[in-house]
C-alpha cells in the first residue's frame, strides 16, 4: 500500500491532486478559524437587539446633563436591560465570543459620539446569565453607564450540519472535478510516454494521436516526426547493409571456388581464413542490425529447458560446461532471440575460458541468468566499453580471428528488447560473469525444484 501511494504521488496527477487536497483542507480550516475568531462576523440575531437598545440609551444620555443621567437611566431601563450610572462599577471579568460580538457592534454604533465600550460576563459557569456593558459616554466623564443584560434563548451552534456538510461538499466537489479535469489533460501525455517507451522496443509503431492541450499536441507531433525519421533512417540503413552483404557473398563464393582449384596449400589455407573472417563479419553485422528489430513474436518458453538444451549441445561438442538452476522457469520472451543471447555468451565464455557454468535463479520480481567462465577477465575500466558495438580488447579478449566486437552488443540489444539488462562482473581470482536480469512480472512464473546438473 505504501509503495502504491508513493508511485501514485510521484505522477503528475498524484501531485496535482495532493496540491488540491491540501488547498481544500487549508480552506476548510480557515473557514472554521473564522467562525471562532473573535473578530469574525456575528451570528444573527445576536447581538443586534441589545446593541440597538443600549446604543439608543447611550445617545440619549450623552445629550442629558451629567447630574440627570442617573434618574434618566433608571427611567429607561427594562426587564431585559438594567441601567445604572456610577463612578465605581464592580467590573466583571469573564470574556466570551458572544461578549466580543456585542462589544464590536456597540463600538460601531457609538463611534459617532466617541464612546468607549467594555463588555464582560459576571459568571464563568453561566456566561450568558449576566452580561455587563460599561459605556463611557465622553473621555472626560467621571461616571460610566453600566448596563446589565442577558442572552435570551440557547446559543445557536456555530458548526451546524448544513454548514459543515456544504463546506465538505464544496471541497470534495472541487477536488473531484479537478481530478477529472487533470486526468483528461494528462491522458495524452501518459499515452505519449507509453508510445515513447514502446518505441524503444519496436520502431514499427502507428503514429500517436495528436490531442489534448496545445503543448501536448506539439510534443505528440514532434514525436511522430521523430519516429518517422528514425524509422525511415533505420530501414534505409538495414536495406543498404543487407544489399552490401548480399553482394559480398557472390565474390566470396567465387574466391572460395578459385582457392579450391589452387595447388598451393599454404595460400589456400591463408585465403580461406580471410574469407571465413569476412563472412563472419557480414553475418555479425546482419545479426546486429536485426537484434533489436522485434520481428519475432513473444511466446511462452521454458527458459530452464532452453538453457539445459543449449548446454547439452555444447557438452556433446566437447566443451566443459554445466547448468545449475530450477527445473522450470516460464518466461514470456522471443525464443530465437533468447537462444542467440545464450549462444553468444557461451561462445564468448568458451573462447577465453576452459570451464563455463550457467546459473539461473529467480529473486522476487527478477530472473537472473549468470554465464561464468574461468578466463582472464576484463579490466574494470573497460567493462562498460565492451558492450558497445565494434569494441575489441587485446591481447587477452580481443585478438582472436573472427571477432568483430558485436557479440556482446547483440546480446545487450536483445536483452533490452525484453525489458532486461546485461552487466559484466569480474570474478575472483579470475574469470568473468555475464549477468542477464529479466523482469519477473505476472507473465513470468517459476516452478522451483532441485537444480539439475549437466
Automatic annotation (TrEMBL):
Coiled coil: none annotated. GO terms for molecular function: ATP binding; phosphorelay sensor kinase activity. The chain crosses the membrane at residues 12-37, 161-182. Residues 243-442 form the Histidine kinase domain. It comes from Paraburkholderia bannensis. It comes from the Bacteria. This is histidine kinase. GO terms for cellular component: plasma membrane. It is found in: Cell inner membrane. It catalyses: ATP + protein L-histidine = ADP + protein N-phospho-L-histidine. Its EC number is 2.7.13.3.
